[in-house]
Amino acid sequence: MTQSPPVHIVGGGLAGSEAAWQIASAGVPVILHEMRPVRATEAHQTDGLAELVCSNSFRSDDRETNAVGLLHEEMRRAGSLIMASGDAHQVPAGGALAVDRDGFSAAVTAALAAHPLVTIRREEVDGLPPESWGSTILATGPLTAPGLAAAIGGLTGEQELAFFDAIAPIVHFDSIDMGIAWRQSRYDKAGPGGTGADYINCPMNRDEYEAFIDALLSGDKTSFKDWEKTPYFDGCLPIEVMAERGRETLRFGPMKPVGLTDPRHPDVKPHAIVQLRQDNAFGTLWNMVGFQTKLKHGEQARVFRMIPGLGQAEFARLGGLHRNTYLNSPKLLDATLRLKMRPQLRFAGQITGCEGYVESAAVGLLAGRFAAAEALGRPPAPPPVTTALGALLGHITGGHIAVEGEEAGAPRSFQPMNVNFGLFPPIVAPTTKDGKRLRGNEKTIEKKRAMSRRALADLDVWLNETSLAAAE
Question: Helix (H, G, I), strand (E, B), or coil: what is residue 24?
C-alpha cells in the first residue's frame, strides 16, 4: 500500500505531541516541527517535548463527577500518549493527577522519537507553512513565535486577543519547616497514587494573613506596556491580582482553610492555609498551589517567606508571567478545527481558545484524529457533543454566542475555557429508586454522574465507528 504524504505539525507542546501520536498510530507519517532549542521562549526551561511550564497538575482524576476527570478517561480510551505518560509518572496529589514534570516530558519525547512514522525537526517556522506541505496542524500554544503569530493575524484579518498566564514558584522540600507545616490532603482525600496526606499545609492566623495581604498588595510587580488593556484568564490569576479583588478573596480561593486540621493543634482553626503540592517523583520539589504571581523575583522571596513554615524557603524556581494568544475560533474554524479560509491548516491546543494542559492535549488528540482520517480518505467525524471531547470542541468551534456588535468590530467575547459540565447538553435529573426527585447537592452529584455515564457510552460508540485501527 502506498504511504500517504506526511502531516506536518508545528509545535511540540502537549497538543502537538498528542496530535503527532494519534496520526502516527493510525499509520500516517508525521513531521513535527519544534523550535526549541533553536529559539527559546520566556517560559520553557528545556528542549523536551510536552514540557509543563506552569503547574504540574492535570487537575481532578475523578471521572464520575468532574468534567476534567471525565476528559482524562475519554483520552485514555482514545489511546492518548499524554495520559499514558502522565499515568506512568504520577506523583501524589490528593484527588488530582499530578506528574513528575521531567519524567513526563522525557517519556513523551522518547515515545515520539522512537516511533518509525514520526520525524522531529528542530527548527523555527516563522511564517505560514507553505502550501506544498499539504495537511498541517498549528499547535504553537500560548507562546507562538512573533513571526508566525503575525502571519496568522494577516491571513485571518483578526486582531488576536492577548492575556497573561502566571507561573507559581517551586520550593525545595528540605527548606520547608515541617515543625510548623504538616502533610494532609483536603478532607483526607486520596487520589491516584496518593495516600490522603499528599499536600504540605502552612497555616496562618488572622494577623499573619493580614500582614501577608498587605505585603502582596504593596510588593513590586512586573509591568508591561498597555498592561491595563491586557486581561488575565480567570483560571490562572496572579495571587496579588486576586488579593486586589478583596482582602478575603484568597481565603475563599487557594488559601481556604476548610477540610484541613493541624494535628499538633487540632482545636485551633487556621485563618488561612497555603498548600504545596509535590512536583517531582523524588519529592524534593514542591509547587505552591495557586500562587501564580507577577511579583518581581526579589519581592517573591521576601513576601513568600512570610508564610509560616516557609521562613527559610529556598526556591528552585520563582514565579513569572508569559503572554498568551488565541484565535476567534468560533468565527475562523470549522467543526474539525480547519481554518475556513485555508482548509489545509488546522489548529490545536491553547491557540484555539481552550485552557489547561489536558484540554490542550485533548484538542490535539482531536486534530490528530481528524487529520489522520482525511489522510486515509475517510471523513473526519467530530465526537458527540455529549462527551467531554465533543463539549470542548463545541465551545471552540460553535458553542459561543457573539455579543451584539462583535462582527462590527467591538471587542469579541469569546474567551478561553476549561472543560466543565456547563458545556454539556442538559440531562434529565435522576430520581431515587422509588421515583422521588433528588434535591440539593445530592441532585447535582447524580446529574454529573449521569452525564459521565452518558458521555462514556457515547464515546465508546464514536471510537468504534471512527476507528483508525485498520490502518495500523
Answer: helix
Please spell the DSSP secondary structure of 54-112, one letter per residue: S-SEEEE--TTT-HHHHHHHHHHHTT-HHHHHHHHTEE--TTEEEE-HHHHHHHHHHHH
pTM confidence score = 0.76
**Closest CA relative to residue 416, chosen from 243, 231, 277, 197:** 231
- Phi and psi torsions of 97, nearest 5°: -105, 105
- Residues making up the annotated binding site for FAD are 11-16
Print pLDDT tens along the chain (472 aa): 457 899 999 999 999 999 999 999 999 999 999 988 667 665 566 788 999 887 889 999 999 999 999 999 999 999 999 999 999 999 999 889 999 999 999 999 999 999 999 999 999 888 899 999 999 999 987 777 778 888 888 888 765 445 566 678 989 998 999 999 999 998 888 877 778 899 999 999 999 999 999 999 998 887 654 433 455 655 667 899 899 999 999 999 999 999 999 999 999 999 999 999 998 777 888 999 989 888 888 999 999 999 999 999 999 888 877 666 788 888 899 999 999 999 999 999 989 988 889 999 999 999 999 999 999 999 999 999 999 999 999 989 985 544 444 444 444 456 677 888 888 888 887 777 677 778 888 888 999 999 999 999 999 999 999 998 644 3
Distance CA 393, CA 398 (A): 8
Is 152:138 a contact under the CB 8 Å cutoff? yes
C-alpha to C-alpha distance for 13 and 6, rounded to whole angstroms: 19
* Bind-site residues: 11-16
Asked if residue 191 lies in contact with residue 93, where contact means CB atoms within 8 angstroms, the answer is: yes
